[in-house]
Amino acid sequence: MSDTTSGARTAREPDQIYNVLPQNAFTVDIEQKTLDNAHLLNDTVRNYSWSGISVVVKDHKTKQPKAILQDIDGIVEAGEILALMGPSGCGKTTLLNVLAHRDAATGAKVEGTTLVNGTSPSTGAFRRMSSYVEQEDALIGSLTVRETMHFAARLAHKNALSKTERIRRIDGLLDSFGLRNQAHSIIGTPIRKGISGGQKRRVSVASQLITAPKLLFLDEPTSGLDSAASFEVISFIKEVARRNNLIVIASIHQPSSSTFQMFDKLLLLSAGKPHYFGSVDGVAPHFESMGFAIPNHTNPAEFLLELMNIDFATHQESAVERLQEMQKAWAGSGSAIELSNLVGSIPAEPLVDAKPSRSNLPVVVMSLVHRSFIKSYRDIVAYGIRIAMYLGLAIMMGTVWLRLKADQADIQPVTNAIFFGSAFMSFMAVAYVPSFLEDRATFIKERHNGLYGPTAFMIANFLIGLPYLFLISFLFSVVAYWLSNFRPTAGAFFTWVMWLFLDLVAAESLVVLVSSLFPIFVVSLALTAFANGLWMSVDGFMVSPKLLNVFYRYVFHYIDYQTYVFQGMMVNEFAYREYSCGNRCELDQYGYHTGNTGKWVGILLGIVLGYRLLGWLVLWARK
C-alpha cells in the first residue's frame, strides 16, 4: 500500500530541498520569510477529499448522455501538491473545475461529494478558503509586479488590513517567489516588454496567495513554459505549500522529469476514468506490476502519457482493450480499494470558517478606479491611441468644412458637419472594444475568486472613462469647432462640448453592453458597428423625423442617443445665429424646437443608464 492513500507524505530532508529548488529562492533570511508569510499558514484545513466524482453531458452529435468523468476518488493532505495528469481530452480540467466548485461544463450533470476535513462546506465558505489560478495569465500588463500584488491585497481584504500589514505580506510573497528584483518591472504589454513567462506565472500564483487560501487550484501552471521555467514555477509553489501547510491541486500536461518529481501525488486519467492515484514514487512499481515497466533514462510523465493516449494508435481496438485492462487493474488493486475506504471513513471535524471580508463597495470601487487610472496612462492602447485618432478626425473635419459662412449656400454643409461631428465620433467608439474585453477578462478571474462583483466593476468602469471622454470631447472641439466656424461664442462652444461628451459616454456604454453580451472581439466589433450604423440612419439627418418610416421612428428613433445629440447641436447652431434665410429655416425643415435641451439631456442620460444597467445585468447573470 502506498503512503499516499494512508494520508501521509514523504518529506524531503532540508538538504534535499536546497538541491531541488533554485538558489535564488533562498536569498532572504528564512526566519524572516516565515515571519512575513505568517498569514499564509494553514492550521485549519487538514485534508481535502472527493469520492464518486462523475460528470455527464449531452453529446452534440448523438444527443445522448456522454460521461466526461466516471467515479473519481482522491485525497490530498495539508502540505501536499497533487498533479492531475492525462492526455488531452481526458477530463483533467473538468475535474479541476469540479474540485474547485466551478462550473464543470455547460449543461453538465455532476455527481459525487467533496469534503474539507470530512465535512461539506458551504459555497461561500469554500470560496473564502480556496483560490484558483487560470491557465492564461489574466494580469494587467501595464502594472508592475508590486502594483499587481498591492491591488490584489486591497481587493481581497478591502480595508481590513493596515498599510503596514499589506506591505509586509507583499514583501514576504515577493521574497518567497523570487520576485524581489522584478518588483518594479511591469508585467508587459504588446508594445512594451515586461517580465518573463515563468515570472508572470509566479506573479499569478503569488497574487492569489495574498488572499491566504488554504486550497490552491492551478490550471496548467506550466503551459507555454520551457522545462527550466516550468521547474522554476513548480518548485516555488511546492516550497510555499510545504512551508505553509497548503493544499495544492494542479492540472498539468507534460512535465519534464525533474518537474514531475516535484509533485507529492499523482492522479492519472484517461478517457475520464482513473488509472492511478498515489505517490509519484509509487507510480512506476504500479505499472511495472502490469508489465509496463518505465525504461531507464525515460521521462516517467512522458511514458505514462504515451501509454494513456490511444488517439494515434495503429490498432484502435487492441489499444482500447489494453487501456480498459489497465483501468480495471487499478480499480481492483488494493491501493484503489484502500483509497476508497479511506475517503469514506475520514472523521468529520468542525470546519473553522474565516469571516468574510466586510463588504465595502466604495473601497473596492476606488481601488478599481485607481488601478484603471494607472493602466490608462501607461497603456496607450487604452486611451492614448483613441485621443490621437480623434484629433486626426478633428483636423480632417475642420479642414474639409473649413470656415463655413452664415449664408444660404453653407447651411447644408454646416448641417453635414454637425452630423459628421456627432455620428462619426460615436461610431469610432468601437476602438474601446479591445480595452473593455481585457478589463472584463480580469473581472471574470477576480470575481471567480470572490474579490468583487459586477456592481463594483461597472461603477469603476464608468467613472474611469469620464475624464478621458471629456478630454477627447474638448480637444476634438477645440480643433474642429473653430476651424469649421460654428457659432463663435463661449456658451455655444461649451454646449457643443457637452453634447459631444454625452454622445461619447452613450457610445462607450453601448460598447460595454454589446461586449458583455458577446465577449468575442470580432463579434463585439461587428455588432457595435452595425448598431452605430443603425443609429446614424435613424437619428434624423439622413431622413427628416417628419418623413421617417413609422416603424423606424417608433422602434429605434426615440431610443437613439444620436437623435438627441444631433438635434441638440442643430438647435445650438441654428436657433441663435442669423443666416441669410432667417435663423429658424433649417430647424423648421427637421421639426426641431428650442427649449428642450434639458429634456434631451435627461433622455440621453437615461439611455446611458439603461445601457449600463443592461450591461450590469449581463455580467451578474453570467456567474
From TrEMBL:
Top-level lineage group: Eukaryota
Subcellular location(s) of the protein: Membrane
Major localization listed first in the record, in broad terms: membrane
Topological type in the membrane: Multi-pass membrane protein
GO MF, one example: ATP binding
InterPro entries given in the database record: AAA+_ATPase, ABC2_TM, ABC_transporter-like_ATP-bd, ABC_transporter-like_CS, ABCG_dom, P-loop_NTPase, Plant_ABCG
Location of the ABC transporter domain: 51-296
Cited Pfam families: ABC2_membrane, ABC2_membrane_7, ABC_tran
Record keywords, A-Z: ATP-binding, Membrane, Nucleotide-binding, Transmembrane, Transmembrane helix, Transport
Transmembrane annotation, as ranges: 380-402, 414-437, 458-483, 489-506, 518-538, 600-621
Gene Ontology cellular component list: membrane
Record-stated family: Belongs to the ABC transporter superfamily. ABCG family. Eye pigment precursor importer (TC 3.A.1.204) subfamily.
Name recorded for this polypeptide: Related to ATP-binding cassette protein
UniProt organism field: Phialocephala subalpina
